[in-house]
Amino acid sequence: MEPLLAFFLAILLVSLLTVKIGLSPFLSLVVSALFFGVLSGMGPELIDHVSEGLARIFSALAIIVFAGSVIAEHLRRSRAVDRIVADLLLLVGRRRGILASGISGYLVSLAAMCSMTSYIILEPVVAGMGRECEGSERRFLFSAALFSVISFNLVYPSPVMVTLTRSLGVAPAEALKFGLPLSLLLFIPAFVCLGRLPIGVSESPAETGPLPSRLVSWAPLALPLLLILAGLLTPAAGMLGSPDFALLAGALFSAALAGEGREDMVKRATRRAGIIIFDLCGAGAFGYVIAQGGLGPAIYASFGPLIPAVALPVLVASLIQLAQGSRVVTVVIAAEMMKGYPMEPVTLLFSISAGAFILSAVSDPYFWLVKETTNSGLRETLAGYTLPLSVCGLLVFAAAALRWLFLI
User: How many CB atoms lie within 10 A of CB 315?
Assistant: First the structure.
């Protein structure tokens, strides 16, 4: 069967198994990966592809997810998050709490070089901020997730931008000159979109009582951020600045502060991390099998003669994003496919970047992370995460198209 048809059938199967039958995302994605492989004619190597996809995600994210879960559990148990929330609201004002959550996601994503790492670090803080401001953390968490992706996809030197500038031969200064102001302009439509979406209210009651000290409260969060920042500013820092090491250091420090409740805290964090990492690994298996099935050339051959030249790069990238979920993988594959395409390089770069926003749904590991941490249903996660990101992607594409039409 043609890879493109097999891909659409596999996406349909993921949705059916997850929404209608109620299988876990891990099982749904692995079954769908096998389904796509069989339809596209793979042989015994199919199981190896599934295992390779699982292993890649586990090796990349296991420490980050586990360490982030330990830090988050400590901040909740010790009420350190409440101290942090109180300090942040004192700084920005209660009425601008949702703006603070978005800005924090935007900035920490750049510091951590990973939008998911940013969210994992900020999740307990932003959730507490939401409870403090309006009795609901869900909209605040969606804001942090949305803005972490905006900076990750548009602002050099994020991995997405570094990959695209190197692959397409674009000067980093040119990418930054167009991407940075564009990312800041997206604050307006993003907040309008978040404010109007029907996102339900969670029921996490606010606690009362004395708050812990600022030093104890901020240290587990500040330690990994400072280590990552040191790694960015000082190459000699080496391993100390990697997100894995930095978050692991934060988790160990959190465990040391937990005292007698340390064992129970780690057990609870492990259970939560296990659910998340299995879902992420399922997405990794699905994406790797799709990548091995020849989807890219099939998309180019099928749609190239049918649509305007300016629209093909964003279509290719958005379909790859839908297929496997990872934004870095999306831009790597799309950039390789579109090398030599007759379009000005900066416009091509941001057209591909726009596609990495669009259709981020059931195959996206970040989608399942946000769904799990916000305690949202599938429909709410689509409304609060997938839809705003897709709107941002369409606006980025519109800006790139206007640049191509009028400025070049």
Answer: 21
DSSP string, 267-299: HHHHHHHHHHHHHHHHHHHHHHHHHHTTHHHHH
Residue 337 sits at φ, ψ, to 5 deg, of -65, -35
Q: pTM, whole model, 2 decimals?
A: 0.69
Peptide bond before residue 157 is cis, with ω within 30 degrees of 0? yes
**Gap between the terminal Cα atoms of the chain:** 41
Q: 45-88 pLDDT, tens per residue?
A: 999 999 998 888 788 778 888 887 888 788 777 777 667 767 76
**359: alpha, beta or left? (left if phi > 0; alpha if psi -120 to 50):** left
Residue type, 148: S
- Can you give the C-alpha Rg of the chain in angstroms? 21
* Distance set, CA 91 to CA 86, 100, 311 (Å): 9, 9, 43
For residue 139, give both structure tokens.
């909209």
10 Å Cβ neighbour count for 239? Answer: 10
Q: Which helix (H) or strand (E) holds 37?
A: helix 25-39
Mean pLDDT of the residues in the chain: 82
